[in-house]
Each structure stands twice: as structure tokens, then as C-alpha cells.
Amino acid sequence: xxxxxxxxxxxxxxxxxxxxxxxxxxxxxxxxxxxxxxxxxxxxxxxxxxxxxxxxxxxxxxxxxxxxxxxxxxxxxxxxxxxxxxxxxxxxxxxxxxxxxxxxxxxxxxxxxxxxxxxxxxxxxxxxxxxxxxxxxxxxxxxxxx
Length: 146
Prior knowledge:
Elements: H1 4-24, E1 48-49, H2 84-87, H3 92-95, E2 131-132
Antiparallel strand pairs: 1-2
């Protein structure tokens, strides 16, 4: 009868040999191709930011809105947030920007706050500017029905 330690060892050995076999046989592929991760690569081409425009349609439920303008040079740190100069509830009408959602004023316990919640303060954790770029990989994704 096989003891418990030997069985664990054999299962682990089988698992890791499958991983090694898949890598050697070309079973695992990276978007980088077969380039060693430690090799220096050429700097990626700079993508063109979309010009200021109307808000971009969302593709799925609960998708954070995409930023329809450049944000280069926007400072967002614990002391300041450039986004709030236009998107805060006190400034959105004057600037013509979209106002922040009420969800940004609720803490993790569901309490309503008078200021932006700390978990929603760093806008670029969820919101990204749109660039003119092709998808990295082919896909068959389709957006939600409208």
C-alpha cells in the first residue's frame, strides 16, 4: 500500500511534469512569443489618444465609463485629484463634465459619505482613457444588447 507522503509526491511530480511537457512542446504560448522575458525589447509604439468627444458606449453591465479625453499630466495622489476639478458634484455643471456616480460616495460598509470614498478616490484604478489601438489578440467578444 502507498503511504500518504509518497502519494502526494507522485501527484506533485505528475503535475509538474505536465507543466514542463506543455512548455517544451509549445503548449503554453505568450503574447510576447518565444522572447526571453529578460531580453530588452523595443519600446512599444505610442498610441494616439482619442480627441475630446462624447462619452464612449459601455460594452457590459457595470463597466466603468471610459475617459473620453487625454489625462496626461493629471495628478491623482492622496492630497489632490485633478479629475475632481471637473467631475465633482460642485463643479460638473460649470465644466460640462459627467458628474460622479453616487456609488463613489459610499464606503465598503454601505454608509453614505459627504466626500468621495477612499476606495473610489483613485479614478484610474477603474477608468482608463480610450486610445486608437487594435485588439492585442483576435477575439469574438460582442457587447451587450441595447
